[in-house]
Write a structure and sequence with these properties.
There is one protein chain. The chain has 249 residues and is of the alpha/beta class. It has one domain (24-248): Nucleoside phosphorylase domain (Rossmann fold, 3-Layer(aba) Sandwich). Helix content is 31%, strand content 30%. The chain has helices at 10-16, 34-41, 77-89, 140-150, 172-180, 190-199, 224-243; strands at residues 27-31, 45-53, 56-63, 66-72, 94-103, 113-122, 156-164, 183-187, 203-213. The protein has a 5-stranded mixed barrel, surrounded by 5 helices. A hairpin with a 2-residue loop joins strand 2 (45-53) and strand 3. Helix 3 (77-89) packs parallel to helix 6 (190-199) and helix 4 (140-150) packs across helix 7. It is globular, with a radius of gyration of 17 Å.
């Protein structure tokens, strides 16, 4: 039988990866897809790789004199939870997720942007961190700043994000109750990302580009509008980084 309270803590793993205190910047831009993280990496000056672990890689450099960390932080709820915990434990103060999602309203188009203002937990990972009554919360000021910036580059919708673990079980019996609770989009990451950040007392927000629409049935994973939105997303979020007081530490 196991006798220790916990097998491994975030600090134990970071130490094994040769991570040193202060290696991360105060602001982290966290993507699911590696190619999106590399879009962010191209904007950094003098980036240094912090670590690579299980396919997740983070770099820290500067942008307009501000220290920023970028990387791919998980495709699904379990990996997003532990990567977010590494970032929080490692000293990041502001976490912004650059993700993708499926729309849950007919008028939302491929390539539109969704800024989360409410998180609906449909994943299993967060139950290891909090009880079922816990409601994850994004930083409202950060979310409003994202909305203002992204309105300059595309169509923005602000609303609830439902996170699920089961891509091929997005049935009307499961989806519609979440729409009734205020979800305007669905993904597989935002709930653990925000929940873990909340547990560490960190500021967080999420902006997602729309890849498909569950109401109309449109699939836009290879649509040029989706790819273009990813490019615009990267440019716009760095404007926020440049304005961020947290990045000036």
């Amino acid at each position: 039988m196991m006798q220790r309270d916990v097998h491994m803590k975030p600090g134990d793993l970071l130490e094994s990866l040769q991570f040193q205190p202060g290696d991360f910047g105060p602001v982290a831009l966290v993507s699911g897809q590696p190619h999106r993280a590399k879009m962010c990496l191209k904007k950094l000056e003098n980036p240094v790789k912090n670590f690579t672990f299980l396919g997740y890689t983070f770099w820290t450099g500067t942008y307009q004199g501000q220290k920023v960390t970028v990387g791919n932080g998980g495709f699904y709820a379990p990996d997003s939870a532990f990567v977010t915990e590494l970032l929080c434990f490692g000293g990041v103060d502001i976490l912004i997720r650059l993700g993708s999602c499926g729309a849950l309203q007919e008028q939302i188009e491929i390539g539109d942007f969704i800024v989360a203002d409410k998180i609906l937990r449909g994943d299993g990972a967060t139950r290891y961190y909090v009880d079922d009554s816990f409601v994850p919360r994004v930083d409202s000021a950060l979310a409003n700043s994202l909305c203002a910036l992204f309105r300059g580059v595309g169509t923005v919708h602000q609303g609830g994000i439902w996170t699920t673990d089961a891509l091929f079980k997005e049935t009307k019996e499961i989806v519609n109750p979440y729409i009734e609770r205020g979800a305007i989009a669905v993904d597989m990451v935002t709930s653990p990302f925000v929940t873990v950040a909340n547990q560490y007392g960190k500021k967080c927000a999420a902006v997602l580009s729309v890849s498909d629409n569950l109401i109309t049935g449109r699939l836009g994973f290879t649509d040029f509008r989706f790819y273009e939105a990813e490019l615009k997303m990267t440019d716009a979020v760095f404007q926020l980084v440049a304005q961020s007081e947290g990045a000036k530490k």
